[in-house]
Each structure stands twice: as C-alpha cells, then as structure tokens.
Amino acid sequence: MAVLDSVLKAYQSPTRMVHAIGALSALGDEAASLNVKRPLVVTDQGIVKAGLLDEALKPLRAAGLDPVTYDQVRANPGIALVDGGARYYQSERCDGLVAIGGGSSIDAAKGIGVVVVHGGSIGQYEWGKDPIHSRIPPLVAVPTTAGTGSEVTLWAVITDPDRKVKFNVGGTPNIASWVALVDPSLSVNLPAGVTAGTGMDALTHAIECYTMAYHQPFTDAVALLAMEYCGRYLRVAYAQGHNLEARYHMSMAAMLAGLAYGTDSAGAAHAMSQTAGGVHDAPHGALTGRLLAPVMEYNYAGEPERFARIGSALGLEVANKPVWKAAEVGVEYVYQLTEDLDIPSLNELGFSEEEIPLLSEKAAADSQSVGNPRDVDARNYEKIYARAFEAGRHRRAARTLAHART
Question: Is residue 13 a contact partner of residue 152, using CB atoms and an 8 Å limit?
C-alpha cells in the first residue's frame, strides 16, 4: 500500500451535472448556454418509438435551436456507426451534440465528437493509440437508463466487429460531456429486465471502482454512496417501474458510480464483460451483472477490509462479524441479488463453456485487469468464468423446478 500511496493521483471532471424529475424541460436552455445553435441529436430507434426524441426536440426548438437527428445508434455501437455520425455532423454543419438514450447513445456521441475534432476514424483513438488532445464539441448527455453513468465518465466504449472486441476511448476530460442532464422520469417506462441489467452495471461500477488499485478518497466517497442507493432502491425500481423515488435514487447511483471512474479503469468484471461483448452482442448490463458476484468471490481475498465495507454500504449486518466473514456476506448478497433480478445466465446470453479459454485470454489482455484488487491472469479468468457458468446452471435448474411445480 505504501508504494501505491506514493503514486501521484488526481481527479478532474469538467461536466456540469443538472438533475431533477422533469429536468428534460431545461434541455434547450442548457444547450443554448453552450452557444450551440444546430446540435446533432444522437439517439436510437427505441427512443424514437417511445416518443422520447420528440419530447427532447420540443425544449431545443423552444430555445430557438435547429436540431438535426442521427437516430442510427444500436447497442454496442461500432466504428462505422461513429464515423458515419461524424460525417453527418459535418455535412449538416452542426455545432454541438445532444445524446439521449442509454450508454450506447452517449458513447456514440462522444466518439462522434472525437472524430469531428481530430479527424480520421474513431478506431485511431483507442486508448493507448492517438491522443485526444482537444475538447470535443459541446455535448449535453441525457441518460434514459440508470446504469452506465456515461453522462459523467471520461470514457466511451466502441465495438470493432472485425477484431470482435470492444475498446475504450478516452481517459481524459477532453471526451467528457459538457453537461449531464439527468431526468429520472425518463426511465419509468423501462422494461424490468433493462432496469435490472443497467442497475447491476451501476453497482458493478461502484464496487469495482471502490476496490480497484487506483481508488482515492473522492472515488471512494461517490462509490460508497452509489452502493447504498443500489442496495436500497434497485430491487424497488425493478419491482415498481413507476416508483419515482426509486428511479431518482438509481439515476443518482448511476451518475455517482460513473464519477467513481475518474481517469482510471475498473477491474476484472469489466475486463470480462467488455471483451466478451465483442465476441457476442450481449447486453452489457446483464452480462456485467452476471459476472459481478463470481469476480467478487475471487477478489475479496485481495482487499478484505474494503469488501467488508461493501457489505455495510449495501445495508447488510456486518458490525459484529470478523473481516473475512463480513467480506463474504457482500459476495453472498450479490449472488442472491443477481437471481432476484432474474439476470440471464451466460448460456442464455449466448455463451458456451467451450468458449471459456477464448474469453479468458481476451479478458487477461484487457487493460482493466491491471487495476484489479487481486492478481489475475488467463488461468484465473478461466476459474471465474467456470464459476459464472455454474451459477447460471443453478438458475436454470431453479427455474425448471418452479415451472414443474406450476
């Protein structure tokens, strides 16, 4: 620990955070305050069909703006989609960005901004390659899910279908949204499965950023509060989709957990889910949620005191337990939460046990493995994946028994 404490650490966020039930009505004023007149509105067809795009365009036009829509975003946005959005931005003479949707829309908008300013293709700006030396155009990010926290992170995740990998872009304030406008009422109509998956993603961000090697006091603080909110409100939001108190606190949990990243990476759960998401086009939240408990089970030996504190943040009784037992309580809780939220098994998400060696090699090569609280390599990843598949088999067996009884 003494070696880590001697490493210079810093935290910087250039993002203005605006939040309230009904905050969408302020979208036009927020964009106009950035001197944007013709924003490219980046979104997906689900948002269009739900009528949320029309709701976003109203305040933009009321503020005298002339928005242009790019509604081609898909889950796990790829290089061609981002590069195409940048070309459209330039051809339409846009001067700013508005992203409305989940993490995919916000990440796509960030990527578009990078290409608009720096040229070329978004693939050139994979972390460790060409630097992002200048700020992206003004971007107002409006999340409609409570999960990725991309509205406040310094990262975007883009898919390269040729390599079958998802790669990180950013790690610098230059890619951050200028404004994060969080309106929890936009999430009330989310299907329960999406609520569960995105909520587990937020919880994973908080847990991994609290236990990663790069943690620091500020990231600890926001990560712990995000865990508290998830422990108290995730099940409620899943069970009562129109419960605005639960939706508000889960939106705050996602934002806080996003802030917990800083300029650093997370850990093994995200190394696994991001690389596996390049192999099969699985929902990121559900995939990450399915992997979280097995990763925690592997990791808690590395930071037992921190994992014990996780149990406390989740509202569990750990006060009179030894540190190791308190750490285990949090792991057991997340295993149970995964089942209570009906998170799909890895098999249901399209993966098979035969792919474990491939998936493990990809995870071990991911840079997010570096910050994991316990040393991890391809052999260890194989053990974690085996445990995750095993937990999924228990889920299927329980569901089969339940169907038989009915």
Answer: yes
What is the span of the domain harbouring residue 130?
A: 10-187
Indicate whether 162 and 216 sit together in one domain. no
Phi, then psi, of 173 in degrees rounded to 5: -60, -15
Q: How many angstroms separate the Cα of 345 from the Cα of each of 50, 139, 239?
A: 28, 36, 20
Query: Does residue 275 sit in the same domain as residue 367?
Result: yes
The full DSSP string for 137-185 is SPEEEEESSSS--TTT-SEEEEEETTTTEEEEEE-SGGGS-SEEEE-GG
Query: SS3 for 32?
Result: helix
- Same domain for 301 and 361, yes or no, is yes
367-396 per-position pLDDT tens digit: 899 999 999 999 999 999 999 999 988 765
- Kindly list the distances between the CA atom of residue 90 and the CA atoms of 78, 112, 114, 194, 354, in Å, as whole numbers in the listed order: 19, 10, 13, 33, 45
Regarding whether 316 and 201 lie in a shared domain, the answer is yes
pTM higher than the cut 0.85? yes
Specify whether the CB–CB gap between 359 and 386 falls below 8 A.
no
Q: What are phi and psi of 189, to 5 degrees?
A: -95, 10
- 388-398 burial string, b = 16+ CB within 10 Å, else e? bbebbeebeee
Quote the pLDDT of residue 5.
67
**Cα dihedral 74→12→288→132 (10° resolution):** 50
Pairing of β 155-160 and β 165-170: antiparallel
Instruction: Report the pLDDT value the prediction gives residue 9, as an integer from 0 to 100.
Output: 86
